[in-house]
């Protein structure tokens, strides 16, 4: 049985109760903490920065999966490593020197991820896939939680899975945006390994149970 990674997005947590929500994730079936960093330039929203991440790190007992929706991410890679990032994902659209940026992430001892916006074709990764640990496919436009899942995502997941299989690579595929128990299983069947879920988890009556439901429904 395949173990799907469930990565609840802290963006949808209650920032006035971050310790409580971090402990909720620690004691749940969640595998990673998904951390959305937005700069108001690459995306039309600002989320939170280093002091908040530092506070999360103090309580998180699971890997921090840091998704950088920022321009020039290479300026902050070391800082995010120091703040506990185990996975650092940069956007393809924000990195003119993607190969170098990925090497920088790996030299810090982190897993290197590349995120693709909904309009970015997956074949732009053909000549760099062997240097990528994780491909994050955006299933909404980055910048906000709570948006509607874009159906074309399935097609992109299948294409990346095929690209990786053809090359004999174990690239992780992560899906981010609008994930619920309605689409989770189909995403895993298309080839996804990790699912981010923000509002579906934290806006539910029982987030711990919702995380378990996502985990269970993905057992294929
Ligand atoms: C969107 C972020 C997502 C977001 C997901 O820009 O990258 O991680 O928190 O939120 P939901 O699950 O509510 O779509
Ligand atoms: Zn994200």
UniProtKB/TrEMBL annotation:
The keyword Nucleus does not apply. Pathway: Carbohydrate degradation. The active site is at 36 (proton acceptor), 176 (proton donor). InterPro entries: Aldolase_TIM, Ribul_P_3_epim, Ribul_P_3_epim-like, RibuloseP-bd_barrel. Keywords: Carbohydrate metabolism, Isomerase, Metal-binding. Signal peptide: none annotated. The keyword Flavoprotein does not apply. SUPFAM superfamilies: Ribulose-phoshate binding barrel. GO terms for molecular function: D-ribulose-phosphate 3-epimerase activity. Its cofactor is Mn(2+); Co(2+); a divalent metal cation; Fe(2+). Binds 1 divalent metal cation per subunit. Coiled coil: none annotated. Substrate binds at residues 9, 67, 143-146, 176-178, 198-199. It holds the Pfam family Ribul_P_3_epim. It catalyses: D-ribulose 5-phosphate = D-xylulose 5-phosphate. Its EC number is 5.1.3.1. A divalent metal cation binds at residues 34, 36, 67, 176. Belongs to the ribulose-phosphate 3-epimerase family. NCBIfam families: PRK05581.1-4 (NF004076), rpe (TIGR01163). Catalyzes the reversible epimerization of D-ribulose 5-phosphate to D-xylulose 5-phosphate. This is Ribulose-phosphate 3-epimerase. It comes from Emticicia soli. The gene is rpe.
């Amino acid at each position: 049985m395949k173990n799907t990674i469930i990565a609840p997005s802290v963006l949808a947590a209650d920032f006035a109760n971050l310790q409580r929500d971090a402990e909720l994730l620690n004691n749940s079936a969640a595998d990673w903490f998904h951390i959305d960093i937005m700069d108001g330039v690459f995306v039309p929203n600002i989320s939170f920065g280093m002091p908040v991440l530092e506070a999360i790190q103090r309580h998180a007992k699971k890997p921090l999966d840091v998704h950088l929706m920022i321009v020039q991410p290479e300026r902050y890679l070391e800082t995010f490593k120091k703040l506990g990032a185990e996975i650092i994902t940069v956007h393809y659209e924000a990195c003119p020197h993607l190969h170098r940026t990925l090497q920088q992430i790996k030299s810090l001892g982190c897993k290197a991820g590349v995120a693709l916006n909904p309009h970015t074709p997956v074949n732009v990764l053909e000549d760099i896939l062997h240097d990528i640990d994780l491909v994050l496919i955006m299933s909404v436009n980055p910048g906000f939680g709570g948006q509607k899942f874009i159906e074309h995502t399935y097609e992109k997941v299948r294409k990346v899975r095929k690209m990786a299989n053809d090359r004999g690579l174990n690239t992780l595929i992560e899906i981010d945006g609008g994930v619920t128990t309605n689409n989770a299983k189909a995403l895993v069947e298309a080839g996804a390994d990790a699912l981010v879920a923000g509002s579906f988890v934290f806006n539910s009556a029982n987030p711990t149970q919702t995380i378990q439901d996502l985990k269970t429904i993905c057992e294929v």
